Amino acid sequence: MLLGAGLLWAAHAADPDHPLINAVTGSTRNPYYDPAKPHHTPNGFRNLYGGQQEKGLGEVIAWQMSRRSPRPPLQAIPTAAPQLDTPEPSVTWLGHASSLLHAGGLRILMDPQFSERASPLSWAGPKRLQPPPLQPAQLPHVDVVLISHNHYDHLDEASVKALAAQAGGSPLFIVPLGIKPWLEGIGIRNARELDWWESHRVGAVEFVITPVQHWSSRTPWDRRETLWGGWALFAPNLHAFFSGDTGYSADFKAIREHFARQGGRDGFDLALLPIGCYEPRSFMKDQHVNPEEAVRMHLDLGARHSIGVHWGTFQDLCDEPLDQAPVDLALARRQHGVADGAFETLAIGQTKRLGARP
Description:
The protein is built from 10 helices and 18 strands. By secondary structure, the chain is of the alpha/beta class.
């Protein structure tokens, strides 16, 4: 179990700012470094409101050794057939954090992950329990791919290569700082990278990357060297937000306030918020919200409708059962007086028609 389930967390445990690591690896300065920006450091990036505490390898091993085995039986994770030809705005949950959004005349795919494992290895690491409802070749033409950060369950090499090879040409990959060179290294050149609060327009849709509280790494030696973030998108018929992975922080009130200063952008019609991979709290709190914190995010953002993602897909990624997040979300809604329909979950593959914004 330690080799498989804990592989990614163990690989991510090293702190690249540690002087011994820097001495051994010859860590270089952040090529994007701007001392005027508080989230920039000479060696990478950091959060605005904390959550920088590193987990040592010993803590990772102790967590893995404490995990329950065997795990309790799961209820069936619901699945549905996608309906991808909707003329009005819609969102289709493809499992974990992957969602396909139709808005502003564009097909927008977020954090595509279609592989069997969320891992650098084909034989170890968190394994997909629920198959994706379709494969990249079965998708309609994707115009834009948004990446929130470079962890393996959000940025999958095989998936982005398949999308870049789609009929009709590669989508535009819009990514945080530092991920464009990685994409170019695997042959994907149609990419644009942004720093927090920077924007890029495709047709009628504006994409803005926002701060969230998380981190990045694909090896033991590159922690925080690339940026992470959430995505706000503004189409004439839909204003939406996708957080990627995040801990709960003041970022979400700040995001609403930032856009409220721009006329007509107070709150979001839709928010795609993570509700899974939150146990044990002692390990996950700084980097992954639990359902109660996700409801607070929903309220902080001024979202009119939210959908919970990042659950029900990969086994052994975290400690709570794969089917627990919707149960805890229902309790959190009642705790905060949020209507059931205002923050819901979808079946894997289900398409939600959103209707045009007022």
